[in-house]
Amino acid sequence: MQNSLAKEALKQFRIIFGTVRQHFREIEASCGISGSQLWLLHEIATHPELGVSRLAENLAIHQSTCSLLVEKLVKKNLVEKQRLSEDQRKVGLIVTAEGYSVLAKAPKPVDGILPQVLATLDIDTLQNLNLSLNLVIGKLDAQSNTLGAHPLSDL
Question: Most exposed: 22, 37, 41, 50, by fewest CB within 10 Å?
Fold first, then answer.
C-alpha cells in the first residue's frame, strides 16, 4: 500500500514538473526569454519604478538572482534603469517598448502556471500542502534548501 502511494505521488510530481517545463519551453519559443525573465518583466510592467530588492521579494527569489535577471533584461533592451522622480539616489526600472512587445506575445499566465494555480488554493489546502512538502524536503539532501530562492525556470 505504501509503495503504491509513493509511486502515485511520484507520478503527480512528474505531472507538475512536466507541465511547468512545457510552459517554460513555450515561453522561450514565443518570447525568446526565460520564464523567470518574463515573470520579472511582467512585475516591472505591473509595478513601475520598483527597485531590485522589492522585485526579489515579490518573486520570492534571492536579491542577487533578481539583479542578474534584471541585467539580462537591460542587455536585451527590454528594461531600462532610471532615477526615481521622488528620490534621485534610487534607481527604478521601467519596461521599454520592446519589453511591452514581448509581454504582448507571451503565453499566459506570464507569472507561471504553478504560482497562478497555488494562488487559487484556499488557506487550509496551502497549509496542508506546505506541511507535506516540508516533510518531503526534510528527507532530501539539506543543501537543496538553497534552491527555494531560485526561479523554477532556472533550476
Answer: 22
